[in-house]
Amino acid sequence: MAAPPDVGAMAPTTAETSWFCCGAGWGPCGSAGGGACGNCQSGSRHCAWPNTSDACFDITRPDRCGDNLLRRTCGHTFYVEHLCGTTEIAVQIADCGPQTDLWCGEQSCCSGNCATNRLLDLTPSAYSAIGNLSSGIMPVRIRS
Amino acid sequence: MDSLGRRKFLTGAVLGTTAATVVGASTMGSFAPEAAAGQRRPLDVEAGAHDPNFIEGRITGLRKGMLMVTSSDRSMHRIHLTGATSVWKLRPTSSDAAKVGDGLYARGVRMPDGTLAADAVWLNIVNLQVHITSIGRNVMHLDHHGDRIVGHVVAGTTAAVYNSTPAVSDLSLLQVGKHAQVIGAWRPDTNEVDLATVYAAA
C-alpha cells in the first residue's frame, strides 16, 4: 500500500479547521497567551500547525489519524480557502495545534465536498475571513 | 460580490443609500462564475499581519447603529451596524442584542473615517476545547486547560454533533471524561457559557 502523501508540501490538501483565540483577549481567552511561537494574536492572520516541533508532535499526533505532516515551524506560511469558497487567505504558523488525534476520522462537508481530520487551526481573524465563527469547524483546502 | 462591490455595498448601508432589508453578506467569498473558474484574487492581508478589517474587544458604549469597542490591546474602535450586518449571540439575532460589557469579534470594511462597517458581529462567542467533568440537569461542568467552565444547556438552542453527523438536540450521548469542542456564548465576567453546539466523538 502506498504511503500517505506528505502534507505541508506544495501540493494542496484538504482538511478540517477550527479557530482558537490567542494573545490578549476577553473571557476564557484572557489566559490564552501568545502561543508556542510567542507572537500569536487573535486579530492577526495566524494559524496553529500540529507538527511545529517534536514536543508539539508528541501532543497532537496526526500520525495516529494516518496523516504524515511535514515539520513546519514558526513563521511558515500556508494558503487556505474554504472548500466551497473562492477567497484564499495567507496565514503564518504562530502556535502548535490542533490536537488532531482526538478527532481522527471526523469529517466536514459542503456541497458534497468533504475534508477529513483536523490539521489546522486558525485565529478568529483568519477563520472569519473565509467562514463563519459560529460554525466552529469547516472544510478547507491548504497549500504551502 | 467582489471586495470593491462589498465596500460600496457596506458604504452605502452606512450612509443610508442601500436598502436596509438586505440580509448579511457572505464571508465565504464570491459566487460569481469567474471566481468559480479558478481565478485567484490578491491576498487581502499578508500572512502574519494584523487584519485591519477585523476587531476584537468589548463593548464600552452603544449609540444608535454604532458600537464603541475597546480592544484587549486598549485600542478603541467604532463599529457601524447596518441592515446588512449579521449578528450572532448564541444564535443568529438582531443588533438589539448587543449590550455594554459584551465581548465581540467583528468583521467588515474600514470606512474613510476609520470606523468599521460590519459585515458580521459575533457577540460573546467562544470556541473551547474541553473535557466534560460532570453532567447535571441543564448544565455541564467543563475543564478548559485547567480552568473550570460551567456550560448551560439552553432549551431549543443547544445542539450536539456526534462524529460529524448532523446536529441534534439529544445530548444524552455526551459522556463524563470525554473531550469535546464547545461553541457557546460567554456570560460576561463569569466562568459560565451558554452552549450553542457541542462537538463530540460518541
Q: What oligomeric state do these chains adopt? A: heterodimer
Given the C-alpha coordinates, what overall shape of chain B results?
elongated
How many separate helices of chain B? 2
The biggest beta sheet of chain B, please? Answer: 5 strands, mixed, barrel
Name the CATH architecture of the largest domain in chain B. Answer: Beta Barrel
Average pLDDT level of chain A: 93
Give the strand order, joined by hyphens, for the main sheet of chain A.
2-9-3-6-5-10
Summarize the structure.
Chain A is mainly beta and 144 residues long. Chain A contains 2 helices and 10 strands, in the order βββαββββββαβ.
Protein described:
The complex is a heterodimer of chains A (144) and B (202). With 144 residues, chain A is mainly β. Chain A has helices spanning 54-60, 124-130; strands spanning 6-7, 13-19, 46-49, 68-69, 77-82, 88-96, 107-110, 113-116, 118-122, 138-143. In chain A, strand 7 (107-110) and strand 8 form a beta hairpin. The longest helix of chain A has 7 residues, at 54-60. Chain A is globular. The N and C termini of chain B lie far apart (40 Å). Chain B is built from two helices and 13 strands; from the N terminus they run H-H-E-E-E-E-E-E-E-E-E-E-E-E-E. Chain B is 8% helix and 44% strand. Chain B is mainly beta and 202 residues long. In chain B, strands 1-2-3-7-6 form a five-stranded mixed beta barrel. In chain B, strands 8-9-10-13-12 form a five-stranded mixed barrel. In chain B, strand 4 (86-89) and strand 5 form a beta hairpin. Classes of the chains: A mainly beta (144), B mainly beta (202). At the A-B interface, strand 5, strand 6 and helix 2 of A face strand 1, strand 6, strand 8, strand 12 and strand 13 of B.
